[in-house]
Write a structure and sequence with these properties.
This is Poly(A) polymerase PcnA. With 485 residues, this protein is an alpha+beta fold. The protein has 23 helices and 13 strands. Helices cover 54% and strands 9% of the residues. Helix 1 packs across helix 3, helix 7 packs across helix 9 and helix 13 packs across helix 19.
């Protein structure tokens, strides 16, 4: 047995290497013939980057990244007749992509790029060595490689000692972080994303460089920023990722509403720390997820109270209020996510959850009428399961009795929803008469009046539940008579 800390680290290193080998075993039917083809043509081929990192961590996905000394045209020729599909959309950057046996493959020629320090797009230059290619990568944990030789023979290559950082759970850059981030400022956000995905910590020099260079993130397109933000929020350690986004100052540039929740607590502690409350809600929402991470739920959880700073009022009795912060917050969500060019439906879903997250608190102790329950379900629509989780996650009080009462009340509301749903199709609450019937009964043509009549019947349906056909006709005629008088 090896003694001491060095021995323990060596044991872990051996286990990680064994884990990487085991992780690559399921894709040997891809690696072996691919390595053979390149070897037969006199070229080197290395699995590299996140593929090696994730194999060592036992989380290899369906993306395999390679680097080679072969030029793109040669790579394309070597893949022909073997890959199921080939595309060269990245050929200008030295990358040829392919699909084989369920794996997405990217093979990039050794690179030795230079940057103009204005955009993040490099001037592509091919390199001659693996070491030269690895040192230009973003982080040491992404600068490890596995040589894929003839018949799938494998050799681990780690000239920058990325394995040590992987063992230590550290995110560090191969070269000086200032140089790396100046070349590509998106790497600062990627560092935060890896905190969220892997639970690693930033090397102090990396953290310092991001703090000092945070404004450089403005060089990156909002579309690329949004992609990284989504990967961050979907990470297993999303709360730590958000904290790092704020602590480094990156959030001030791209999501200022989150650090904006760091309100000064009054001396009587009349309100919670909104920022830390929101982080707790995010974690509790994640804990309620049933399977895959829920992008909409997680964004709604961290953003649900962003309207509080703008609505905070100190009341005469010494208390603090945040009236209508859900309304203001929903508007802020739409504005920020539109600026980040999120898809319209995603924006609307997140904003709707933020707008509705307080609705439940009017429920009291089962005091809602059936009509109120119908409206709650109808307003939530397909988002009801996520609203259920968000409302439950929003209970962060330390008062155990109050927390238990709130959860009990929500249990009761869900029971009420289920009971009404057994009798009515709550998922599709529609008027008892359709547009054609409305026009026939009232003797009117298509136009605004039909829409008004439809809305009246919809409200009636929400208030009273399903009506029989004759009753619906009678109510429609009564309403129409009042409209004509």
């Amino acid at each position: 047995m090896t003694g001491g800390r060095g021995g323990a680290d060596n044991d872990r290193r051996v286990r990680l290497l064994a884990s990487a080998a085991a992780g690559l075993r399921p894709v040997e039917d891809v690696l072996a013939p691919l390595g053979q083809r390149f070897a037969d043509a006199g070229h080197e081929l290395y699995l590299v980057g996140g593929s090696v990192r994730d194999a060592a961590l036992g989380r290899l996905g369906t993306d395999l990244d390679f680097t080679t000394d072969a030029r793109p045209e040669q790579v394309k020729e070597l893949l022909s007749g073997w890959a199921e599909a080939i595309w060269d959309t990245g050929i200008d950057y030295g990358t040829i992509s392919a699909a084989k046996s369920g794996q997405q493959i990217e093979i990039t020629t050794y690179r030795a790029d230079s940057y103009d320090h204005v955009s993040r797009n490099p001037t592509v230059a091919y390199g001659d060595t693996l070491e030269g290619d690895l040192i230009r990568r973003d982080f040491t944990i992404n600068a490890m490689a596995v040589r894929i030789g003839p018949s799938g023979a494998q050799e681990f290559v780690d000239p920058l000692d990325g394995m040590s950082d992987l063992l230590a759970g550290i995110i560090d850059t191969p070269a000086a972080p200032e140089d790396s981030f100046n070349d590509d400022p998106l790497r600062m956000l990627r560092a935060v994303r890896f905190v969220a995905q892997l639970g690693f910590r930033l090397q102090p020099r990396v953290f310092t460089a991001i703090v000092e260079m945070a404004d450089q993130i403005n060089r990156i397109t909002v579309e690329r920023v949004a992609v990284e933000l989504d990967k961050m929020i979907l990470g297993e350690y999303a709360v730590e990722g958000v904290r790092m986004l704020v602590d480094t100052g990156l959030a001030d540039r791209i999501l200022p509403e989150i650090p904006g929740m760091q309100l000064t607590i009054d001396e009587h502690h009349q309100h919670k720390d909104v920022y830390n409350h929101s982080l707790t809600v995010l974690q509790q929402a994640m804990d309620l997820e049933e399977s895959d991470p829920d992008l909409v739920l997680r964004w709604a959880a961290i953003l649900h109270d962003i309207g509080k700073p703008a609505t905070r009022r100190h009341e005469p009795d010494g208390g603090v209020s945040f009236h209508h912060h859900e309304v203001v917050g929903a508007k802020m969500v739409r504005k920020r996510l539109r600026a980040l060019k999120y898809p319209k439906q995603t924006i609307e879903d997140i904003a709707t959850l933020v707008f509705l997250h307080l609705r439940f608190h009017g429920y009291g102790d089962g005091t809602w009428t059936d009509s109120a329950v119908r409206r709650y379900v109808t307003d939530a629509g397909s988002l009801l399961p996520q609203l259920n989780k968000l409302v439950r996650a929003d209970v962060t009080t330390r008062n155990k009795r109050r927390a238990a009462r709130l959860q009990s009340n929500y249990d009761d509301l869900e029971r009420r929803i289920a009971e009404i749903a057994e009798k009515e199709d709550l998922a599709r609450v529609r008027p008892d008469l359709d547009g054609n019937e409305i026009m026939t009964i009232l003797g009117i043509s298509p136009g605004p009046e039909v829409g008004k009549a439809w809305s009246f019947l919809k409200e009636l349906r929400l208030d009273r539940g399903p009506l029989d056909h004759d009753e619906a006709i009678a109510e429609l005629k009564k309403w129409w008579a009042s409209e004509q008088s």
